[in-house]
Predict the 3D structure of the following.
Amino acid sequence: MSLNKDKYSIDNTDYTVGQDNVQKWGFDVHNPVFGISAGLIGLFLIAVLVVDPQTSKAALDGLKWQIIGTFDSLFMWSANIFVIFCLALVVSPFGKIRLGGDDAKSDYSTLSWIAMLFAAGMGIGLMFWGVAEPVAYFTGWYETPLNVTANTPEAAQLALGATMFHWGLHPWAIYGVVALSLAFFAYNKGLPLSMRSIFYPILGDRTWGWAGHIVDIFAVLATLFGLATSLGLGAQQAASGFHHVFGIDADLPFQIAIIAVVTLLAVVSVVRGIEGGVKVISNINMLLAIVLVLFVALVTFAVSMGTIPTTVMGYIENIIPLSNPMGREDEAWMHGWTVFYWAWWISWSPFVGMFIARISRGRTVREFITAVLIIPTVVTVLWMSVFGGVAIDQVVNNIGTLGSQGLTEVPLAMFQMFDVLPFGSLLSLLAVLLVLVFFITSSDSGSLVIDSITAGGKVDAPVPQRVFWAFIEGAIAAALLWVGGTEAIQALQAGAISTALPFTVILLIMCVSLIMGMRTEKHRG
C-alpha cells in the first residue's frame, strides 16, 4: 500500500493485530478492552438489579430525555450530514476505490450480501413498527408529524412519508459511514477490524493506546445493551404473537423460554460462522419476508398498490421539512420520534456497521454506498406501503380492531391487521416465525461483532469466545426481564440511547478521518 508520507503513514505503524491480547482458558481477548467492558457491564447490571428497576428506569429515562431535548439539533444536523456525506462519496472519485484493493473479490453473492446487511440492520424493526408507526402518525397516537391534522388524507400521506423518513436514507447513512470506514481501514490499510482503527489518520500510534481503548469500550457497551434490549422487548412481542394466535399465556416464564431458544439457536449459528450460519439464516429471513409481504400485497392489491405512490411522494415532499430541526411547531413529536430514532440508530451503528464491514470486502465504494442506502430504502417503501397502507385503510373504513379501537398495543398491531385478511391466522404464524428468525440473526451477528472488538480486531477468535458473548446477551435480557420486567429492559434501552451522544461526535470525526485515509489511495479504479 502506498501512502502520502507528508500526511501520515499507516505503513510505519508496527502494530500487529492481536498483539495486546491475552490467551487463557480457550479465549483470545484484547487487554484491557475485554476486561473493562465486561466489568462495566457487570456493574451496570448490579446497579439495575439491586436498585428498584422502576427507579433505574426513571433515572435513565430522565437522562435520555435530557440528552434528546438538549442536543436535538446536534442529532438532526448530524444525520443530515451523514446522508450528504455518503451521497457525495458516490459521485466523487473516491467512489471507484475497491474495498480490499483493485484485485479484491466479493466474498458473498450480491443477493446474500443484501440479505445479511438488511437482516442485521433493521429487519426486526420493520416487523414491530410496519403497522404501528404509520397508524400512530395518522391517528395522532403520540402527536402528529409537522402538526398535520389527524385522520385526514393529508395525515395519511404524511404518516407514510414520516415513517419512511425514519427508516430510509438517514438511518442507512449512519450505518454506511461506520461500515465503510471500518471496511476501508481494515481491508485497504491492513488495520484491525475495530472501531479504533478508523481514527489512525488523526491519532497515529495513539490509536493503540487509551484513546483507542475508550472508543472500542463504548462500541462494546452500545452493541451489547442494544442487543439485550432487543432480545427482551422482542421476546415480549413474540410471546404476544403466540398468545394472539394460539392462546398461549404470554407470561414471564414463556418470554424467558423464548429468549433461551433464540439464544441457543444463535449459538449454533455463531459456531458455524458467517458462511454456514448468518448467511443461511439471513437468506431464510429474506425469503420469509418476501412471502409475507407479497401475500399481503396480493390479497389487498388495490389498497397496497395505490399506497406506493402516496408513500414515495410523502417521503420526497417532506424529507426536507422533517430534516430541519429549526422552528418546529411539532417539537414534541420530533423529540419523541425522530430524535429518539436517530439516537437509537447511532447507538446501534457500531454493531450494524461492523457486521456490514465484515461482509463487504471486494465492493467498490460506489457500489457499497448505493446498495447500503438505496436498496433497503426501496424495500422499505414496499414494506411500509403494504403494511402501513392496509392498516390506515382499516382505520379509515372502521375495519377490525384497528378500525374500531385504533392503536392500543404496539406489539399486537400487525397481528390485529392480519385478523381481517384471508388466512389471517397463517399470516400471524408466519409473522411470529419471522420475528424469531430475525432475532436469531441479530443475536449471532451481534455476538460476532462484540467478539471481534474484544479480540483486538481479530475475525477468527476461538469458538468458546463467540459462544460466551451469545450467552451473555441472552442472560442479560433474561435476568432483566425476570427481576424487573419491562421497566428493567426499558432502563437498559435508555442507557443504550444515552451512549448515542458521544458516538454522534465520534461519527462526525469519523467522516473526516475516512476522507484523510481515502486521499492516500492512488488507485481508484
